[in-house]
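Exercise 3.2. Students should predict the tertiary structure of the chain below and write it as structure tokens, then compare their answer with the key that follows.

Predict this chain's 3D structure.
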Amino acid sequence: MQNRITQLFGIPYPIIQAGMVWCSGWRLAAAVSNAGGLGIIGAGSMYPEVFRTHVQKCKAHTNKPFAVNVPLLYADIKEIFDIIVEEQVKIVFTSAGNPATWTSFLKQHGITVVHVIANTKFALKAQSAGVDAVVAEGFEAGGHNGREETTTFCLVPMIAEALRIPVIAAGGIASGKAMLASFALGAEGVQIGSAFAVAEESSAHPAFKKRIIEAAEGDTALRMKKLLPVRLLKNTFAEAVATAEAEGASAEQLQQMLGRARAKAGMFEGDLEAGELEIGQVAAMIREIKPAAQIIQQIWTEFLTEKERLKSI
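Answer key:
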């Protein structure tokens, strides 16, 4: 397939692996890129020198395009972007902040920039800032999410109609059928998180992966809307947050409950009760731990099969 997304990134399949904290190290990014998608290193959980090591190892294990995801709220943002330039990373996905702050800097260094958004207002701001594409991430997605709770099926067509640049759909996508539906809504690529969080090459803790594939419908919920909305698997911590929110907890109180390194404890170290377990609603449809290459091939094969089937309708 050739479209604006495959041409922009230089990849065979318009399938992008999300840059997930504590899941998206160099092994996963390299595996996805080697399989024909776009692998992404998630910088949000890495100190600068750890991040540099992941970039260097990814470059050593793939000669295919790969990207990095940088949350713009990151404390050591200047160091991270300096490393990106020094290591000659070609593609950067930014999120959780104003793209106007860093897009021109990245573009001056010949870097392709994509920004993650959850509403039309910020999609238009990202386009004005000069980004090359946007990820339209719906309410179903895991991790940090939009306050508007707009679902992927509503968000993607609105964004695609409003913008000139290509749109990548995200949120609730883990199959070829969902990918085809996203394309019907105007997307030219898909970003997939939860399905790759349980890939063999994911750096997530085995206990977290097991919890994901055991998840049932309704096992996730959006929490901490007063602070920074995040979709979590229900556990002791998530239920404590729900109780606090029902009692009117302030953003400061929620921040105190969150503390430090809670996502690391849950997703990387395997504390399934006190940890923060970020995952999407589509976890209820994921039942196996598989290599990243197999995930991509199954999605792509189903996409083509369903595309042909719909021709006869």
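Discussion points: The two ends are 23 Å apart (CA to CA). The mean pLDDT is 96.
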